[in-house]
Specification:
- Strands 1-3-2 form a 3-stranded antiparallel sheet.
- It has about 100 residues and is α+β, with helices and mostly antiparallel strands.
- The chain is about 60% helix and about 15% strand.
- It has a single domain, classed as Winged helix-like DNA-binding domain superfamily/Winged helix DNA-binding domain (Arc Repressor Mutant, subunit A), CATH 1.10.10.
- The chain starts with a helix and ends with a helix.
- It is built from 6 helices and 3 strands, in the order H-H-E-H-H-E-E-H-H.
- A hairpin with a 2-residue loop joins strand 2 and strand 3.
- The protein is elongated and about 50 Å long.
């Protein structure tokens, strides 16, 4: 992952509502959630949810799949893990701490 992609994803998650949407999808697991259920759980208007989901989609953090008339949203776990790995990749690189050595093993 490059710095620009990480910055875009972090910026998207920097909004309180988007972070709540994303965490809701992460909690839902691989099955994801229909848009209506996300809306009910968070108590936000459909147009607001649509706006925030679009932002998460553009950064690759969320995927959508249409199943008949239902739109299923899922957290993209590869994208989430990529962002986490990017953030932790150089942990303690200059300090030589044992956490880095333990992670490499």
């Amino acid at each position: 992952m490059n710095v620009e992609q990480a910055a875009k994803q972090l910026e998207a998650l920097g909004n309180t509502t988007r972070l709540q949407v994303y965490r809701t999808l992460v909690r839902a697991g691989e099955a994801g959630l229909p848009v209506g259920q996300i809306q009910e759980r968070l108590g936000i208007p459909g147009s607001t949810l649509s706006h925030h989901l679009q932002r998460l989609l553009l950064t690759g953090l969320v995927t959508q799949e249409r199943q008949a008339t239902t739109l299923i949203c899922r957290a993209s776990y590869p994208a989430m893990n990529g962002l986490i790995d990017f953030l932790a990749d150089e942990c303690c690189a200059d300090a030589g701490c044992t956490a880095r050595a333990e992670n490499a093993a």
